Structures are given as C-alpha cells and as structure tokens.
Amino acid sequence: MNRAQAIEENGAEFLMVLGRAAGAEVRDDGRVRWAIGNSPIDYFNCVVHADLTHEEADGEIEASLERMRAHGVPGSWHVGPSMRPPDLFARLLTHGFEYGGDDIGMAVDLQALPEEMPAPADFVVERVNDEAGLAEWTATFGSGFGLGPV
User: Fold this and answer.
1) Please, what is the Cα angle at 20 between 81 and 8, to 5 degrees?
2) Is 14 within 8 Å of 44 (Cβ atoms)?
3) Rg of the chain over CA atoms, in angstroms?
4) Domain boundaries defined on the chain
5) For 89-110, what is each residue's pLDDT tens digit?
6) What is the pTM of this model?
7) How many other β-carbons are positioned within 10 Å of the β-carbon of residue 96?
8) To the nearest 10°, the Cα dihedral for 56, 61, 62, 67?
9) How many Cα atoms occupy the beta-carbon half-sphere of 45 within 13 Å?
10) How far apart are CA 75 and CA 19, in angstroms?
C-alpha cells in the first residue's frame, strides 16, 4: 500500500469508527462504506468508500441520500483517489451535493523517525478516565474540527 492509499484508508476508518461509536447506521460491504445518522454535522454522516460501476453509481448515490433523509441528517461523500467510477465527483454534484473542500493528510515512515523527538516541556499524553476529562476532550475535538461546542 502506498502512502496516499494509507492516508485515504486511515481517514475513512477514522470516520467509520466515529460513526459506530455514535450509533450511526453502518454499511461496509466492500463496494460501499458509510456511517450515517446520529450527528447533526454533515462531515460525520458520510460515505467514505465507493467501488462502483458506471451503472451502479447513481443508484448508490440515491441510496445514501435516502438513508440521510431517513435519519433526518445532512451528509457528505469523502471522495478519494481510489473511489470509482472516475466521474463520481461530477455525479455527486448532479445529485445535489456541493464541493466542500479537500481533506488533507500527511504520512511518515515511523521506522525512519529518530528514537527521541523533542516535545514542549508542558506536553502530556493522558488517558481520559472521568467526565471532566471527557468534556475537555470533546471541546478540544470540536474546536480542532472547527465545529465549536460539541
């Protein structure tokens, strides 16, 4: 797997895990992957993988829209370089989706990193283990995604 594929798959898995944790409806059949429902934020009600023929694409786009309507949530498609058919982006626009920007990612070979990496003196990694910590993590997460209070 090349780095671009790893970035795409990692982003998709992140959104699928968030969806499962929130109790979203999940589809993961090898052709289409989505997590839809239980979030008022379109970014998180999303299709993250499509490996479709030209003949299947419009029907699957409509199926995703139907699930979004059934859950009463806005939704999105996170279109990556591995998704097919090649004209998927144009088809999504035709079905009423709007281009919301590019997802970005970075990758590094972990084996190539030095053993010791400098960190700020006050840098701490902590496990969240109480309600106060969860509230702080949730606020930080929401702020990091530009969502405001979550």
Assistant:
1) 15
2) no
3) 18
4) 3-114, 118-150
5) 999 999 999 999 998 888 888 8
6) 0.80
7) 8
8) 120
9) 21
10) 12
